[in-house]
Amino acid sequence: MEDTVFCGVFDGHGPYGHVIAKRVRNLLPLKLGSHLESYLSCEEVFKEISLNTADRMTSDSLVQISANGESRVYNKDQDMVQMLLTSIVKAYRFMDKELKMQVDVDCFCSGTTAVTMVKQGQHLVVGNIGDSRAVLGTRNKENKLVPFQLTEDLKPDVPAEAARIKRCRGRIFALRDEPGVARLWLPNHNSPGLAMARAFEDFCLKDFGLISVPDVSYRRLTEKYEFVVLATDWVRDITLSMK
């Protein structure tokens, strides 16, 4: 795909987190590319069919002819955004399934966060699991550079995350020596104490509320948006402490 960029940051945790983070870094772009290719191949078929329906197609639309002969017009921008959003979710899902099948690394209590972005032309789609962040650098009316956070830190005590964890019998509490850090624990054991509600791997917690489904968001880029910063919680915390 022309004018397309993929970027990601993967922050491992646990005894084998560094290995898992590298593996996700290497494989997730391939998973995403595979899903995008399948969508694009369908789009090429739609375009070929539409050559004979020019009177029903505009430059910004795509016509799909169904099996019963009915036509449906798709807006190209809407279709592209939906393709990117769906592909990211599917790539994350298949990535976690593939990691579970690998036997050379113990992923029971190790895992990684992931914050990824795909920029395609003026479309920016972000997928996030864990507590790394994507921050957009933008200009305000006074032409000053200001940050805009594109992601939410998916901590166990975020209300929607906490509700899911509790439905799955996971426990959430903070240790006495770090009262501000909510952690996810097994129902009957004070372990592993994961400080996030979503992550790849950590299969000891997957039955107790931890998921690897990304939180996805979309933004259409304009001239006031200048750059995106992807960073781990460690980079963020160090930056805040320096201030």
Beta-strand fraction estimate: 25-35%
In CATH terms, the superfamily is PPM-type phosphatase domain
| Helix and strand pattern | EEHEEHEEEEEHEEEEEEH
The number of helical elements comes to: 4
Compute the number of strand runs. 15
Low-confidence stretches: 45-74
Q: How can the largest sheet be summarized? A: 4 strands, antiparallel
Overall pLDDT confidence: 85
Q: Roughly what percent helix?
A: 25-40%
> For the largest beta sheet, what order do the strands appear in spatially?
1-6-7-14
Distance separating the two termini: 40 Å
The CATH topology is given as Phosphatase 2c, domain 1
Our Rg estimate from Cα atoms comes to 21 Å
Total domain units: 1
- CATH-defined architecture: 4-Layer Sandwich
From the helix content, strand content and strand pairing, which structural class follows? alpha+beta
Can you identify the CATH class?
Answer: Alpha Beta
Assign an overall shape: globular
Domain PPM-type phosphatase: 1-243
GO molecular function: protein serine/threonine phosphatase activity
Pfam families: PP2C
Protein name: PPM-type phosphatase domain-containing protein
